Amino acid sequence: MVLVLEIAMLVGGIVALITGKLSISRTLQLRGAPARIAGIVLLLPLPLAFAVGFAIGFLKATQGKGLDESFRLVVGLVELGITLACLVVVVVMTAVWGRQPPRKRFAEDEYFEEDDVPARPRRAAPHAPPGGARWRAARSRFGHSN
Predict the structure, then answer these.
(1) How confident is the model over 29-83, as pLDDT tens digits?
(2) Which one, of 94, 12, 73, lies nearest residue 46 by Cα?
(3) In Å, how far are 6, 32, 55, 112, 115 from 122, measured between CA atoms?
(4) From CA 61, how far away is CA 54, in angstroms rounded?
(5) In sequence order, which residues have a C-beta less than 8 Å from that of residue 15 and are 6 or more positions away?
(6) Backbone dihedral angles phi then psi of residue 22, each to the nearest 5 degrees
(7) Are the beta carbons of 60 and 42 closer than 8 angstroms?
(8) How far is CA 35 from CA 19, 120, 123, in A?
(9) Which residue spans within 7-138 are E strands per DSSP?
């Protein structure tokens, strides 16, 4: 079961690294650098579990002890702990930096045209005719003679 969770996290981590998006739930999503950092954390359980299992096995071998059933239990629990710790880190990152995903556009939005909404009456912009004081000041600033 732990291996299935690790493989799911591996796939999710690769997707997060490539796309820069990671959705934990419908309401929380990471985008950009935080999503890529979370993707790296999701990739960590397999190499960490391998390294810790290798180190424990190496220590047992240097002590001259064989690998018995308790070794498999210890390594399995350590692997489960590493996997759950990485998953908790990603969930906390998403809770802290996560935002709501952008609203999806519905099919009826595609047929929306500007003509469907009545135009708001616009006020005329104040306009100074050429030859006014502002216009003369601007021309003299740029070296034009009046």
Answers:
(1) 899 999 999 999 999 999 999 999 899 888 888 888 877 778 888 888 999 999 9
(2) 12
(3) 60, 40, 74, 22, 16
(4) 10
(5) 22, 39
(6) -140, 120
(7) no
(8) 9, 41, 46
(9) 21-23, 29-31
pLDDT at site 103: 74
For residue 7, the model assigns a pLDDT of 92
Give the position of tokens 């359980």. 45
Model confidence, pTM: 0.65
Q: CB under 8 Å to 21, separation ≥6 — which residues? A: 29, 30, 31, 35
Residue 40: both structure tokens together: 């790296």
